[in-house]
Design a protein that fits this description.
Layout: H1 2-23, E1 25-32, H2 39-58, E2 66-73, H3 78-90, E3 96-99, H4 103-116, E4 120-122, E5 137-139, H5 144-157, E6 162-168, H6 171-183, E7 190-197, H7 205-212, E8 219-222, H8 227-238, E9 244-247, H9 254-260, E10 268-271, H10 285-301, H11 307-326, H12 331-339, E11 344-346, E12 349-351, H13 363-366, E13 368-373, E14 376-379
Parallel strand pairs: 1-2, 1-3, 3-4, 4-5, 6-7, 6-8, 8-9, 9-10
Antiparallel strand pairs: 10-13, 11-12, 13-14
Length: about 375
């Protein structure tokens, strides 16, 4: 009998210890495309999250508790994303979620976020993620509409107003294409050709040949991410096309330059400022934050940073700051604090959110126009 009582007491102590341990941590979830066709997005995002959760915990955590990161690799597959978001909500009991890496998977999980009332900070580009505003949904990258605005402003200043589009037909490419077409007239831009390609296409020569046959094309804009834009860039140069080729923030990483090779020379890219941190003015508040991030990331992983890791950095820190501001890890309190974010300086710019804007990113601080020269980034002139 005494032996049985000792066993029962031991089990009770173990359960109590485990329960207390669980309460000593704040669980946050992450859905990232760490492998698969969008791994160039998710891999640096996951590495960034792991690096900075470790750093936060080394400094004492948040509200005196350790931050516990629970991540799942979606492979950018919307079905995987829905499976894992349910696991994060129902089994892991996280208080906030970061992800997905891509627009399609993010859109797929939004109904589950709405039902569970768990704050989500997406790391994907589509404007549809936050417009119309969804109570528990936020994001860190500039929207595809903002990229179109910045690109068209640049082209108009160069007197290049006749523009051809060649867009990926995935979630991001399709969304940005629609945004560019919708606002083109506001910037005096004429869309004179509109071509698309699929995620498995390996040759965009037919579409580019159609564009080349037109006499009035002054610039070609390519909304898309993954290998598609690199193939477009190679085919563009193989065809001897001389118009200005502009890529979106969906390719703002050294991986794109590696994939496109010498064909990337002279390509214009709309990008967050982190990849050109050293070229920013000393007065720019983003500069030191970005330089610190670059050093920490490269020291840890011996690899160049990308803008995508920056999306994760901002997602994590926005959530951490919201927990501190709310003095609570309650999901609703975190949501309310996120919505009242003001003057947060991140790797993607200055954020000021409110009830009508769950991105709150200033376009001028959030997007820079870059030109690839000698295999590296420069500020476009």
């Amino acid at each position: 009998m005494k032996k049985m009582m000792r066993i029962i007491l031991g089990l009770f102590v173990l359960c109590f210890t485990l329960s207390a341990s669980a309460k000593d941590s704040i669980k946050i979830g992450a859905l990232v495309a760490a492998t698969g066709p969008a791994s160039f997005l998710g891999d640096p995002e996951l590495k960034t999250l792991e690096l900075y959760v470790e750093k936060i915990n080394a400094k004492g955590g948040v509200l005196g508790k350790k931050l516990e990161l629970i991540s799942y690799d979606t492979g950018a597959n919307p079905k995987n994303a829905t499976t894992f978001v349910k696991r994060l909500i129902n089994q892991d009991e996280v208080v906030a979620i970061m992800g997905g890496s891509a627009s399609g998977e993010t859109m797929a999980i939004l109904p589950f976020i709405k039902k569970a009332k768990i704050p989500l900070v997406s790391m994907a580009g589509s404007i549809k993620i936050v417009e119309p505003v969804k109570k528990y949904v936020f994001k860190t990258p500039a929207t595809d509409r903002m990229a179109c605005q910045k690109i068209f402003t640049y082209l108009k200043a160069k007197n290049k107003t006749n523009v051809a589009l060649i867009s990926g037909n995935g979630g991001f490419g399709k969304s940005m294409r629609g945004q560019c077409i919708e606002i083109a007239g506001d910037y005096g831009i004429n869309i004179v050709a509109d071509e698309t390609y699929g995620p498995k296409d390996t040759d965009m020569t037919p579409q580019l040949t159609k564009i080349k046959s037109l006499d009035n094309v002054q610039a070609v804009v390519n909304p898309g991410f993954g290998q598609g834009p690199a193939i477009v860039t190679k085919n563009f140069k193989q065809l001897g096309m001389t118009q200005t080729l502009v890529q979106s923030h969906g390719v703002a990483s050294k991986k794109f330059i590696e994939l496109a090779g010498n064909a990337s020379e002279g390509v214009i890219v709309a990008s967050p400022p982190v990849v050109v941190a050293s070229l920013l003015d000393d007065s720019n508040p983003i500069k030191q934050i970005a330089l610190d991030y670059i050093k920490n990331y490269e020291d840890k992983y011996n690899a160049p940073v990308s803008t995508f890791g920056g999306y994760a950095y901002d997602a994590l820190n926005l959530i951490v700051e919201a927990i501190k501001k709310a003095n609570s890890s309650d999901p609703k309190a975190i949501r309310d604090a996120l919505e009242s974010t003001t003057s947060y300086v991140g790797l993607n710019g200055m954020f000021n959110m409110n009830k009508k804007d769950h991105l709150g990113l200033d376009i001028d601080s959030g997007i820079k126009m870059l030109e690839i020269k000698n295999g590296d980034w420069t500020l476009a002139k």
